[in-house]
Amino acid sequence: MNFTELHWATQINYPILTALQLLPLISMAVVLVWNGRRYLFWIGLAAALLELLLALDLYRSYDLTIGAMQFAERLSLLGPLEYHAAADGITVLFVLLNALLTMLVVIYSEARGLKPLSLVLAVVFLVEASLMSLLVSLNLFWFLLMSAIQLLPVGYLIWRWASSPEKDLALTRFLQFMGVGLALLLTGTLMLGLNHVDATGRWSFDLFDLAAVSVPPEIHSVVFFLLFYGLGVRTPIFPFHGWLPIIAEHGSIAVAPVFLLGLKTGIYGLLRFVFPLLPEAVLQWHQYVVAFALAGVFYAALMALLQVNLRRLLAFAVVSHTSLMLIGLFTLGEYSFEGSILLSVNFGLAITGLVFMIGLIYRRTHSVLLSRLGGLFDALPLLGITFLIAGLSIIGMPGTPGFDAVHLVMEDSIHRFGALVTIAAALGNVIAAGFLLLAFQRAFLSQEASAGETDEIEGASPLEKLVSALVILLLLGGGFYLEPWLLLVDGPAQGLSLLFNSGGG
Question: In the predicted model, is pLDDT for residue 504 greater than 80?
Answer without folding.
Answer: no
